[in-house]
Amino acid sequence: MVSSLPHPTTPSGRDGLAALLAQPAKAVVALDFDGTLAEIVPDPEQARAHPGAVAALAALAPQVASIAVVTGRPAGVAVRYGGFAGVPGLEHLVVLGHYGAERWDAVTGTVRAAAPHPGVASVRAELPGFLDRSGAWPGVWIEEKGRAVAVHTRRARDPEGAFEALRGPLGELAVAHGLVLEPGRMVLELRPPGMDKGVALAKYVREVGAGSVLYAGDDLGDLPAFAAVEKLRSDGTPGVLVCSGSTEVTELADRADLSVAGPSGVVEFLTELARAVREA
Questions:
Q1: Can you tell me the distance from the alpha carbon of 231 to that of 239, in angstroms, rounded to the nearest whole number?
Q2: Are 236 and 262 contacting, i.e. CB atoms less than 8 angstroms apart?
Q3: Residue 212: CB partners within 8 Å, gap ≥ 6?
Q4: 254 catalytic per annotation
Q5: Of 15, 32, 43, 218, which residue is the catalytic one?
Q6: DSSP secondary structure letter of residue 27
Q7: 110-113 and 102-105: which strand pairing?
Q8: What is the mean pLDDT of residues 93-117?
């Protein structure tokens, strides 16, 4: 291992990284998109992958079993915002969109998807009037995510106040339509149950037959993926947990084996990891 590659601070993390470096061709490197490969921005439609992300992924991808971007976004949107399509070296990349309900494969360039949950359409129709009745929160807005709907408070005059005030009522609305509420960084997402990054990641790791797994994320929605890696480790598959650092969410840093400074830190880590794999 080269000295410029950050060292995990936990024994499990060090074991996971050692296993990845020893047999990279059996490793899955999985990453969240927003906040991990792309900076968090006030308008999610303006989010784009860090300028160095594609090059770092293209350097690493040919050396590992797979790179998986695991995101709540539609798979096609993550591909466009990430700039992943048609990039030499990214043939081993997949995007598990909508928490695994959609899948884009770089080899085929196509998206496969399961049938949508009917509760999402119902919530989509009801949500504007529901928010109007819930109080005046200027700046709160709705993001249409296809298989989920998200309410953002980051642009509100009081982002945290709006977030806390809407969390309970939106949770009740979600339950009424057979959905669940997932809180994030100034966002409340209503989505079908059984859809989370942990389910998507564990299923994909089993499919690939991975010998080790690394997961990097930044938000509360990444905690299920962290839990999936912890379960895999307890079952004998080494793993590494990386936190893309944020002052808004501390839960991931508390459980991570390694923390880096946001998407720029993730890109630097991936670049050094690719170099370490070549030199191992």
A1: 10
A2: no
A3: 16, 19, 20, 23, 26, 27, 28, 237, 238, 239, 240
A4: no
A5: 32
A6: E
A7: antiparallel
A8: 93
Place of tokens 């860090």: 50
CB 220 within 8 A of CB 184: yes
User: What per-residue confidence (pLDDT) applies to 224?
Assistant: 95
Q: Give the span between the Cα atoms of 24 and 63, in whole angstroms.
A: 6
Residue-level pLDDT at 248 = 72
The neighbour count for residue 60, using CB atoms within 10 Å, is 26
With H, G, I as helix, E, B as strand and everything else as coil, classify residue 112: strand
pTM summary value: 0.82
CA distance 124 to 39: 27
Tokens standing for 31?
């990453």
CA gyration radius for the chain? 19
What secondary structure letter does DSSP report for 73?
Answer: S
Structure tokens at 120: 């999402």
Q: Are the beta carbons of 173 and 200 closer than 8 angstroms?
A: no
The rounded Cα 133 to chain-centroid distance in angstroms is 32
Task: Tell me the pLDDT tens digit for each residue of 127-143.
Answer: 998 888 876 678 899 99
Burial 166-200 (b: 16+ CB within 10 A, else e): beebbbebbeebebbbbbbbbbbbbbbeebbbbbb
Q: State the residue for tokens 């999936």.
A: 228
3-state secondary structure at position 187: strand
CA distance 101 to 249: 26
